[in-house]
Amino acid sequence: MRVLVISDSHGEDRLLNRIVEQADCDHVIHCGDFCTDTDRLPDRSLTVVRGNCDWELVPEEQIWEGAGRRFFVTHGHRYQVNTSLMSIKYKGKEAEADIVCFGHSHFPLCEQSENMLFLNPGSITAPRGFPEPTYAVVELKRNGDIRVTYYNPNGKVVSRLGGSYSLA
């Protein structure tokens, strides 16, 4: 199963929809700050949360399950992700998540800690502290392994990000 994880599109719904088409995934997770009306979001299997810049009434947090994995999805601003992952780690544990997806910082991050994978796809419009816009594709393998690949909006692999992970 392939899951597109994207965040901080900040009103660029055409770019968002183009990326969703080119990524050709089974499910889409948007970690907030989509900054457009929800009817302009991709017409796909979609989990979306509200970011600090969104006006639409969508959930602040969501749980999504696919291929035997539990995803906790939030924007991240309520967990101070710009300074530390500690608060979001506690929330991930509480949610019994395998994968914690968040945005807000506009900085791509993928790291495993305490048998959870923490994934920030970066921003497709305005990266901060990283030289190019990014999004991530999570491949959930039948054997339980997880492969995360980052791309720029043109679909080119950003090879210095992502990797393969095994969670118990």
Automatic annotation (TrEMBL):
Which cofactors, by name? a divalent metal cation
User: What EC number(s) are associated with this protein in UniProt?
Assistant: 3.1.4.-
- Output one GO MF annotation: metal ion binding
The yes or no answer to whether the keyword Signal is present is: no
List the keywords (alphabetical): Metal-binding
Annotated ranges, domain Calcineurin-like phosphoesterase: 1-142
Determine if RNA-binding is one of this entry's keywords. no
* Enzyme class of the recorded protein, top EC level: hydrolase
Q: Which InterPro entries match?
A: Calcineurin-like_PHP_lpxH, Metallo-depent_PP-like, MPP_YfcE, Phosphodiesterase_MJ0936/Vps29
Family the entry assigns? Belongs to the metallophosphoesterase superfamily. YfcE family.
Q: Which NCBIfam families match?
A: yfcE
**Name of this chain's protein:** Phosphoesterase
Q: Which organism is it from?
A: Marinithermofilum abyssi
